[in-house]
Amino acid sequence: MFEIRHSDLAGRIGRLRTKHGIVETPAFIPVVHPVRQEVSIDELKKMGFDMLITNAYITLKEYGEDARDVHDILNFQKPIMTDSGGYQVLVYGSVDVDHQTMARFQARIGSDVAVPLDKPTGFGLPRSKAERYVELTLKAAEDTIRMSKEEGRDEGDDAGTIWAAPVQGGEHLDLVEYSSRRLLEMGYEFFALGSPTELMEAYEFYTLARMILAARRVIPLSKPMHLFGAGHPLTIPLAVALGCDTFDSASYILYAKDGRYILPNGTVNIDELEYLPCICPICSSIGVKELRDMSRDERIVKIALHNLYTIKREVDNVKQAIVEGRLWEYVIQRSLSHPKLVEANNTLVESAEYLEQCTPIFKDRALFLSLPIDQYRPELTRFRRLICSNIRSDKSTLVLLIEPEEHPFYTSSKYKMIKDAINAIHDNDHINNNNKIGDDVQIAYYSPFLGVVPEEVSDVYPASHMVSVRSVKYYEFPTMIDSIIHFIRSNRFKRVLIEVDERSIQFMRSINDKLQEVEIGYCLNIEDIIAFIRSKQW
Ligand SMILES: [Zn+2]
């Protein structure tokens, strides 16, 4: 039902197979009204939307129990997802049908992806109420999947309706996790995380991100996950990076009705616009004054189309970033649009191991490392762990240099200088049959982003496949110091000689306090290190 073609972080380019064809994910699924559409279905097809979502509850109210196939109602022969009325429950408190009726109805109208009638928890619900809503939703989900199996609608992967498991719980993360676990046990293959609209309106991106992670702690990455109501370009990159595959929203039209024009970094009322800062087909063909002077109905359609183009462009940018293996850079770059998104980036740090699962072991393109948060990239976390657990040195002396500009490390001039000095002593000692110091020195360098990099692995990915900023504040890189200390301890070095400069000296001195059992020397230049090696005064 779901096949993954490319992945980066927990974001995937996937193929979702439905009975009306394949949808490539991540995909934005526009919400359309079953009867009245301001933006025509033909227009949506032309824009390249391969899947639509409509409301089964409204369809039932409008057309009755013997409604036609939803594909005929919408005149759209591609995949259609139906929501069951959970949104109406969220807004009005309840609906006047039961979940059994909604389940039968959605199957009857030929929905490709259908949702059991849920009781959304929204945001800000007291715990006890949220618990009750979760249980009600689970009951509906259990009855629905059982009915689907009993009535033979579940005819394997290629046929029948895909039932989307409604994950509820809101900001009560343990409820989200519990809900996900129960739904997984029921046998659901597709998951839909509920009701984050209110969170997004309150810019509670960090809570939203933690909800996604809570669900993904339980739901395997092989199973696709939908995020309800995510219709703003701001939220899409992080949501994809954390493991969401599809999104639906009516924001494009709801905003348009309020005169709100979606920009990649936020929304703005068209009355406040001096220009149309966009090159979509709509904005390329009209000016801002013309847009304002249009009749209301005409203006709504134009703004809605522009809004859809903006959302689509965001999804396409995210997909391209996944293919190129630079989703991390893209998410960080986009997060700078809003302080609360920067705050939500903490989830990337908190879930490093999870994000590693789908991040390729090797990438063609060099990693660009600019900000302290980049030290937590999965590629770098993985590298530090490799050093920590796999690299063992039997030498008693460690020479630790500042990261050179040349890569790999062993081609750098200072590596060669140190190596030549050691070899010269080695040859000399060999003749005199003294201690073979050359065999007893481990050379490595330290990188703020990577931590300690021993010479043997300095050409292993990503050590020589990265471009990083040179002027860093070392105290912002705690992973580096942890990596150095761990490396020294686990290899039982007796002496460590560290090259420092004005920027690193203070910070590197803290190693001394943490490793009192080791003799540590600090040198401000290579010549001093060589002099030390030659004099053997260490
Ligand atoms: Zn536009």
From TrEMBL:
UniProt xrefs under InterPro entries: ArchSynthase1/Queuine_TRR, TGT-like_sf, TgtA, tRNA_ribo_trans-like
Q: Which reaction does it catalyse?
A: guanosine(15) in tRNA + 7-cyano-7-carbaguanine = 7-cyano-7-carbaguanosine(15) in tRNA + guanine
Q: Which GO terms describe its biological process?
A: tRNA wobble guanine modification
Q: How is the cofactor bound, as the UniProt entry phrases it?
A: Binds 1 zinc ion per subunit.
The role this protein plays is: Exchanges the guanine residue with 7-cyano-7-deazaguanine (preQ0) at position 15 in the dihydrouridine loop (D-loop) of archaeal tRNAs.
Q: Which PANTHER family match?
A: QUEUINE TRNA-RIBOSYLTRANSFERASE
Binding of substrate occurs at 118
Describe the location of the tRNA-guanine(15) transglycosylase-like domain by residue ranges. 11-339
Q: Which GO terms describe its cellular component?
A: cytoplasm
MF GO annotations: pentosyltransferase activity; zinc ion binding
**UniProt keyword annotation of Transmembrane present:** no
In terms of SUPFAM superfamilies, this protein maps to: Pre-PUA domain (SSF88802), tRNA-guanine transglycosylase (SSF51713)
In Swiss-Prot or TrEMBL terms, this protein is called tRNA-guanine(15) transglycosylase
Q: What is its EC number?
A: 2.4.2.48
Instruction: Enumerate the residues binding Zn(2+).
Output: 278, 280, 283
Species: Candidatus Nitrosocaldus cavascurensis
Pathway membership, UniProt: tRNA modification; archaeosine-tRNA biosynthesis
Could you list this entry's UniProt keywords, alphabetically sorted. Answer: Glycosyltransferase, Metal-binding, Transferase, tRNA processing, Zinc
Similarity field: Belongs to the archaeosine tRNA-ribosyltransferase family.
Q: Where is the active site?
A: 83 (nucleophile)
This protein's cofactor list reads: Zn(2+)
